Amino acid sequence: xxxxxxxxxxxxxxxxxxxxxxxxxxxxxxxxxxxxxxxxxxxxxxxxxxxxxxxxxxxxxxxxxxxxxxxxxxxxxxxxxxxxxxxxxxxxxxxxxxxxxxxxxxxxxxxxxxxxxxxxxxxxxxxxxxxxxxxxxxxxxxxxxxxxxxxxxxxxxxxxxxxxxxxxxxxxxxxxxxxxxxxxxxxxxxxxxxxxxxxxxxxxxxxxxxxxxxxxxxxxxxxxxxxxxxxxxxxxxxxxxxxxxxxxxxxxxxxxxxx
Length: 259
Known about the structure:
Elements: E1 9-12, H1 18-21, E2 28-31, H2 33-41, E3 47-51, H3 52-57, E4 62-71, E5 78-82, E6 90-93, H4 98-110, E7 116-119, E8 133-137, H5 138-148, E9 153-156, H6 157-165, E10 169-176, H7 183-199, H8 201-207, H9 213-223, H10 230-245
Parallel strand pairs: 1-2, 1-3, 6-7, 6-8
Antiparallel strand pairs: 3-10, 4-10, 5-8, 5-9
């Protein structure tokens, strides 16, 4: 195995991850969430910022305590877009997101709403058909809203989760493979990096080249949460219980392996 002092680390290539990874001294593999989950599972990465559902699906990993991508209300960048006044009966799913897709299934099941899933078109920024909704996450979701604005209705899943449960929702976590020998040292480094970046969040916003700085301020400060404390852990535990309830995960209690 690669020297644990230089872990093979992967990270989602989205705006929401910048405060968790900026300044990392080593090499970083950036990829889509689903691809990172696969690579971490195969042992091609030692550490990755990936879908929280990946841990619930395969709870072998260490979770870096204190750090997450979460929301405690509207998240802005995880939503189902639809033509105003239409029901979410036919939904095109973003294959990049295990967590977003599973979250939508849970929320719809809790509302006793039945829907049909469809594959997302290759151009996920294309207009919607009158009979279709589309689940979007991350930067693609932000760009969709930038492009279409109020032309569509946006069912914000972070807002829906908070309204249904009263708890935050955890979208992504730092997961470390169980055979990595110095998981504690890596976790400490990732926590310190996050703490420093959040203390200098204005510098991260000023350095942003893809998105408007005023939007970044709103997104980072009003929409996202970067902690993984007791309420976030309660939210993750409830997510697991609802997935079991709706047949999306097998029965059984999952212990959080915190480092």
